[in-house]
Amino acid sequence: MTAVVDRRSSRVWVDNAVRLIEADAQRSADTHLLRYPLPPEWNVQLYLKDESTHITGSLKHRLARSLFLYAICNGWVTENTTVIEASSGSTAVSEAYFAKLLGLEFVAVMPASTSPAKIALIEAQGGRCHFVTDPSSIYTESQRLAAESGGHYMDQFTHAERATDWRGNNNIAESIFTQLQREEHPIPEWIVVGAGTGGTGATIGRFLRYRTFDTGLCVVDPENSVFFDAWQSSDCAVTSGRGSRIEGIGRPRVEPSFIGQVVDRMVKVPDAGSIAATRHASAVLGRKVGGSTGTNLWGAFGLVAEMLEQGRSGSVVTLLCDGGERYSGTYFDDHWVASEGIDLSGPTAVLDEFVRTGRWTA
């Protein structure tokens, strides 16, 4: 006797879930590509892809959308699945948003030391926070909760590089090049990004090769992160005992989504440089930007200065990852900066010299 098991009825929820996510994307215009003000006589343009304009306020909105579509289309997330993620930051905020859109429970696993402001942002999107005393245990605790509840551990650090279609389909790289088409230098010399999961760098690096663009990918890495050391030494086993001060980027281990082979250059950025550039850019733009944007700009300014020194014109693109309002108690707070033992005077002088002369003395 032939045995038949038919589960096609479950596709009704899947079809509607994909429709809801795609409809949400259609309601949103693409994020802006801003011109960062540099002296016209330099003939080098610097652009900021403003990811803070996503509905959840950061670059991680793209990642969360891709992760949900990937998990749904793989059959990992279905109706009534509890979604669990190891994150205390912007990824958790964005994933909580999409879980709420689909009527799913969301749990963010995070260190007990996470700031009340971050917790409030996640809870405002309908998420629940689960705390651990040892920050390094967020991965195993997420796996345990998923197994215990019959839920799904989204695992951004593993799936970020594969959840996004790097060949196109309106990924961030395709969006950048579409918006540059009518600019003076439509093929940038460099695109500069930080690495948290590594997924954004992997997407852009692959896209540059697939489309045969003569554009370099520069990845900037903050203090206490191991991506730079691992890339330089080709040793992915390197680890660090401390976490990054610059939220959203930097990791104490090399995450599976970091694809170092597509990176053309890496720059290790001191935290004082990141914070000084964050404050500098906020003053120039008339709006607060987050710390990872400062890290990006520190790397981008150095590349602009290098082009000027070599007498080359062209363009550089980097990311405005999120707004600075979330960091009023840290990067914009002089007491917090002092308590961390950070001296901004040196990096501030570097930035002032760059603005005056175009030279980079870091």
Would you kindly provide a written description of the structure presented here, covering whatever features stand out?
The chain folds into two domains: 27-55 and 167-357, 3-Layer(aba) Sandwich (Rossmann fold); 60-160, Rossmann fold, CATH 3.40.50.1100. The longest helix is centred in the last third of the chain and has 19 residues, at 291-309. 48% of the residues are buried. The protein has a six-stranded mixed β-sheet with strand order 1-2-10-7-8-9, with helices on both faces. The chain has a four-stranded parallel β-sheet with strand order 5-4-3-6, with helices on both faces. It has helices at residues 11-26, 60-73, 90-102, 116-124, 138-149, 156-163, 172-179, 199-210, 227-233, 271-285, 291-309, 334-339, 345-357; strands at 33-36, 44-50, 83-86, 106-111, 128-132, 152-153, 190-194, 216-222, 265-269, 314-320. The protein is globular. It has 362 residues and is an alpha/beta fold. It contains 13 helices and ten strands.
Describe the structure using short key phrases.
single chain, 362 residues, alpha/beta, Rossmann fold, six-stranded mixed β-sheet, four-stranded parallel β-sheet, globular
C-alpha geometry: globular
- Domains (count): 2
Main sheet?
6 strands, mixed
Class from helix and strand fractions:
alpha/beta
- The residue ranges in which pLDDT falls below 50 over 5 or more consecutive positions are none
Offer a quick outline of the entry.
The chain is of the alpha/beta class and 362 residues long. The chain has helices at residues 11-26, 60-73, 90-102, 116-124, 138-149, 156-163, 172-179, 199-210, 227-233, 271-285, 291-309, 334-339, 345-357; strands spanning 33-36, 44-50, 83-86, 106-111, 128-132, 152-153, 190-194, 216-222, 265-269, 314-320.
